[in-house]
Amino acid sequence: MTDIILHHYDLSPFSEKIRLALGLKRLDWSSVKVEAVPPRPLLDALTGGYRRLPVLQVGADIYCDTEMILRALERIAPEPSLYPDGEGLAKALSLWWDRSTWRPAVGLLVGHIGEHLPEAFLKDRKDNYLGYDISKPAMDPLQPIFVQQLAAFGEWLTSMLGTRNACLTGDAVSAADLTCYHSLWLLRANAGAEVIDRQLNLSPAVTAWMDRIAALKREPTREIDPQAAVDAARDGEPGDGFSADADPSGLALGTRVSVTPDDNAKVPVFGEIVAADAQEIVIARETPETGRVHVHFPRAGFETLAAGDAA
Length: 311
Fold this sequence. Notes:
- By secondary structure, this protein is α/β, with parallel strands linked by helices.
- The protein has 2 domains: about 5-80 and about 220-310, Glutaredoxin (3-Layer(aba) Sandwich); about 85-215, Up-down Bundle (Glutathione S-transferase Yfyf (Class Pi), Chain A, domain 2), CATH 1.20.1050.
- The chain is built from 11 helices and 10 strands.
- A 10-stranded mixed sheet has the order 5-2-1-3-4-9-8-7-6-10, sandwiched between helices.
- A hairpin with a 7-residue loop joins strand 6 and strand 7 (about 270-275).
- The protein is globular, with a radius of gyration of 19 Å.
- The model has no long low-confidence stretch (mean pLDDT about 95).
- One of its GO terms (molecular function) is transferase activity.
- Keywords: Transferase.
- InterPro entries: Glutathione-S-Trfase_C_sf, Glutathione_S-Trfase_N, Thioredoxin-like_sf.
- This is Glutathione S-transferase family protein.
- It comes from Fulvimarina endophytica.
């Protein structure tokens, strides 16, 4: 099998989700470290400008957004499944958690370490990514609200774990566990587990569950540079195997479209549809640097429009 390449940075919580998934599936992978703040010209060549991290690459197949990456890993290594109790609950819980906890988790993090965040990072997140100010002066007045929200969510995790479940949706780890873990991991990794556990009043059930999830992590097989990843795309051919002509809105194969996140970092990626169904869309792009690549996106959380209709 062609090497699995993860484009990521160490303190990205969404990247941590995928690092855990690779560990759960016991897959070898190569690491490309990416700057937290653009420009990232070689990664942009692969993705068409999609600016969120992580990005997974297998040869000339490029996977954007963690939901799509998890779907791809499930195809590569079906067992152990990321959806042992079915996809619906795990995916719905994951999407809700990512969107509901992101602002309070970042806000609380800034309350603890905001004075250490580079000005370039803060400016980028305000102007190009989130659309609001995450500097310490902006976030400090909201600290009680962030604690209230995350403490409530922590109690929900306790309820889901209950007295019988080892994990959130049953006895086996699912994608929901990896998602709900990662924002708490971000806080604990930067502010200290004891501090965050006390501040949010996390239960022993939640902290024990976090220990079990943390144990899944698998270090990369090797570190490679961004140019090596571009070379792997140029020297390969798209070969994922996903094939569908079932776009629910009637977009036909070959249509030039834009695909854009619907929440933040709303940078459109343009290409021609080569496969689509209700869960996934794949667009083809070609540049001299990369050759022909297929860029994969999930449908939930993204907007696909015929390019002539794109804003």
